[in-house]
Amino acid sequence: MDFRPLRQFLVLADTLHFGRASDTCHVSPSTLSRTIQQLEEQVGSALFDRDNRHVVLTPQGRRFQQYAREALEQWDQLRLSLQSEAQRLTGEISIYCSVTASYSFLYTLLSAFRSRHPGIELKLHTGDPARAIQQVLAGDEDMAITSRPRHLPDGLAFKSLTRSALVFIAPHADHEWIPSTPQSPSKEQWRGVPMILSESGLSRELANTWFKALGLAPTIYAQVAGHEAIVSMVGLGFGIGVVPRIVLEASPLAERVRILSVKPELPHYDVGLCALNRRLKSPLIDALWQEVIER
Predict the structure, then answer these.
(1) SS3 sequence, 131-199?
(2) pLDDT tops 60 at residue 86
(3) Do residues 255 and 88 make contact, with C-beta atoms less than 8 angstroms apart?
(4) Between vectors from CA 157 to CA 151 and to CA 162, what angle results, nearest 5°?
(5) What are the Cα distances from residue 164, in Å, to 208, 244, 245, 295?
(6) Strand-pair category, 240-244 with 91-97
(7) pLDDT at residue number 295
(8) pLDDT (tens digit, 9 = 90+) per residue, 49-63?
(9) CA-CA distances (angstroms) from residue 74 to 87, 96, 162, 280, 287?
(10) What is the pLDDT of residues 223-262, one digit of tens each?
(11) In terms of CB atoms within 10 Å, which end of the chain has fewer, N or C?
């Protein structure tokens, strides 16, 4: 069965750029354009509004995007179910995680899995952990390693791999803005302290809650995508940061910073594997899901 038109449509719907989409699909822009035109003729409606500069999905195109994703998912589930009955799974799983998670969890998670299922190809994408859940919910990734949010979105399954504390870190060198008695819950010593925090995500939410409980708005020096760069900026003396302890322990710059023992302490949070519930019906996705022994 030829699902290439649907796959090419989805790539164009994600990139909204004929040149980039055609490169990704390994076809010429003219071939991609003909494919889209044929799809539009078959559905009887324009899927994209396009001119020389812009490409945007029409309302009908957004509906067709949802259909295309579900059709490909159902085809993959059927194909993999038949393969499972033949005792051999082949196909592809995409996983999204931070750089730290890639070397903290992936080897343990995937080493035995690769031995049992050598026919499964794994695609790893790294980036800001704050984007992980959205990548899964949008259907851009099959699974992600991320922190468990305070409120788990409907339709999302989560299995815990470990728990980690959030910690305040400061440079080793003395600076006048480093709180002298961080174990004392005094807001005056935190007033004006340059803070280096994540742009978004659970660690930012918990840091904001901590400062709110103190009755103080943090003084933001920098907002960073991902935790690894926070350790670097703190080590350079730009401010105080908040990072998961597992990120600090894995960082090559860990010796350049120190943990501040603050009161009240920041809470622990779960780090685990997440996937859409409906995707767990796929024998391929479920095979990896079953590898996780929840902590």
Answers:
(1) HHHHHHHCCCCCEEEEECCCCCCCCEEEEEEEEEEEEEEEECCCCCCCCCCCCCCCCHHHCCCEEEEEC
(2) no
(3) no
(4) 80
(5) 18, 6, 6, 12
(6) unpaired
(7) 62
(8) 988 778 999 999 999
(9) 20, 22, 32, 12, 17
(10) 988 788 999 999 999 999 999 998 898 888 999 999 998 9
(11) N
The two structure tokens encoding residue 19 = 């040149």
List, in order of start, the domains of the chain with CATH numbers. Answer: 1-79 (1.10.10.10), 163-269 (3.40.190.10)
Tokens 């819950």 sit at which residue? 185
